[in-house]
What does this fold into?
Amino acid sequence: GPRIGVLTSGGDAQGMNAAVRAVVRGAIHLGARPFAIYEGYQGAVDGGPGIREMTWDDVGNIMHRGGTIIGTARCAAFREREGRRTAAKNLLERGIDRLVVIGGDGSLTGTDLFRREWPDLLRELHERGEISAETMAAHPTLMVAGIVGSIDNDLVGTDMTIGTDSALHRIIEALDAISSTAASHQRTFIVEVMGRHCGYLPLSAAIAGGADAVFVPEDPPRDGWEERLCDKLAAARAAGRRDSIVLVAEGALDRQGERIDVDRLHDVIERGLGEDARITILGHVQRGGTPSAYDRWMSTLLGIAAVQDVLAATADSPAHIIGVRRNRLARLPLVQSIENTRAVAGYIKEGEYDKAIEARGESFGK
Ligand code: ATP
It folds into this structure.
């Protein structure tokens, strides 16, 4: 049967294991042969034990584990054409010409480049005597499907990405813990959460965690925000609120494009209220721990749909990302989705926040 490689690449995210498991078992169920590519693209570049055929049992007992059992990495060699040529050779040695890639927009960009270059890479390998004419003819195209693994939920076009829901759970657990200590001391806590270009985590956490204020990259506060923040915190305190929480995305900015980070917020609160606010940076805690129920079942559905997609693909079909829209699986055009995602980051950089929100809006279900 057809041979499918599966890999996880870029930053890890809870739920990647459920997706890997679904790809492996879905492939076997549909009569294909699944291969794990270890440590992101590095396994493909290295070959040998970097690529291994998977059995049904190899992916048993992994669904509840965070991270990814097949490893992830940032592979510099795959950014070079030579590395991709070596990767093509190693995949072909095992007859693999279909890939399911679970990663962020960088990883999926690499996948698309690999897919487009594939015929040329094979021609070069043949010219160098590294593959036969038969091998070249037998695998004229690379068929790929992407699944977005990113706790930031930053891909435009899909409502959710793998790991986001679990990360939100981690944040809420932390906020609950913080607010009990904050309440005891009548203190303000400033909490930094992930979200370089995407405010999904801070915004959702602010709502679910009952925060007093939140700062997100796509919607910087209007000038004079320092005073308004302090007034709001003071009013809440006067009304009897004992615990105050201010959430800030790691990529939050003001209208001048300057970072609003925990230290700046600390200064603002100290100057405005004479209060020594406490700072917590959640960092990698957000990526850790057990995947939520959602990240298990949704990643399972995504994995199976990705297998179906690469098995149904033909030479002319465009590459897809399997995502979620309005709680249903959706096939998104890979190239367009990544372009739209990069556009949002560009708008934020240029200070065109209305455009950023509009471009983001569709995947936030507005
Ligand atoms: P995250 O958002 O979690 O950082 P990502 O997938 O965007 O995930 P990157 O570090 O951008 O993370 O990419 C992961 C790997 O994908 C790179 O180390 C490289 O191997 C490959 N890759 C990324 N961009 C490209 C590209 N333009 N060409 C070829 N390979 C790429």
